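Structure (tokenized):
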């Protein structure tokens, strides 16, 4: 497949999947679109029309576009959302359940024996309560705290890394999750009391070595 803006080169797709003519494009016999452009022997059409005919949706990623299967009528498709909304990236479902700002945080999912407190009286703890669900058909082992881009951002263009090591909040940092099952955990941050939070960015590390699209949750 060749991505050019929001078009897709139908000519390079398998003829067994998509049949094309100058007037009409169908997917497995299901009408997709008649809005086509023929150029240099190739047929182009809206990737959104093709995805819809395939029962899929288009998700914008940092490297282009991803066609994913819908995750349900009440889910926000794509990689951006708000607190309480479940996002689906084609493999995994992520929900930022709650954001807690406090001077002392008692872990909910791990018995650390002590509360987490900031290192400076000018700072406070932010706990992002999260749920990560395996949307694949195979068991997956996640490393919850080693995502490349996992961070909080604020309106002053600053970013804050999550606590690691002993100062985490999960039953285990490397849970093995069965298909359809989920793991609950918290990402812990220390930020200035004056910080106006903007987004939570979460990178899913499934130990496969393959990059997964980031989830970005607005905190505004």
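Design, position by position:
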């Amino acid at each position: 497949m060749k991505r050019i803006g929001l078009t897709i080169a139908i000519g390079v797709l398998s003829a067994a999947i998509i049949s094309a003519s100058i007037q009409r494009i169908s997917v497995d016999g299901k009408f997709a679109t008649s809005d086509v452009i023929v150029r240099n022997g190739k047929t182009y059409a809206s990737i959104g029309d093709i995805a819809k005919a395939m029962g899929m949706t288009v998700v914008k990623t940092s490297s282009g576009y991803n066609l994913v299967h819908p995750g349900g009528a009440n889910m926000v498709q794509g990689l951006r959302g708000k607190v309480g909304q479940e996002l689906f990236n084609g493999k995994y479902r992520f929900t930022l359940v709650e954001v807690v700002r406090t001077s002392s945080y008692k872990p909910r999912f791990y018995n650390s024996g002590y509360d987490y407190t900031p290192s400076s009286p000018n700072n406070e703890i932010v706990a992002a309560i999260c749920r990560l669900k395996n949307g694949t058909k195979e068991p997956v082992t996640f490393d919850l705290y080693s995502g490349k881009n996992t961070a909080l951002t604020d309106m002053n263009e600053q970013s804050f890394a999550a606590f690691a090591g002993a100062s985490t909040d999960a039953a285990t940092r490397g849970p093995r999750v069965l298909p359809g099952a989920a793991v609950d955990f918290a990402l812990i941050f220390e930020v200035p009391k004056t910080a106006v939070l903007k987004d939570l960015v979460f990178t899913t590390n499934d130990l496969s070595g393959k990059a997964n699209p980031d989830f970005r949750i607005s905190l505004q």
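Reviewer-requested clarification: Confidence is low (pLDDT under 50) at residues 1-21, 70-78. The longest helix spans residues 47-53.
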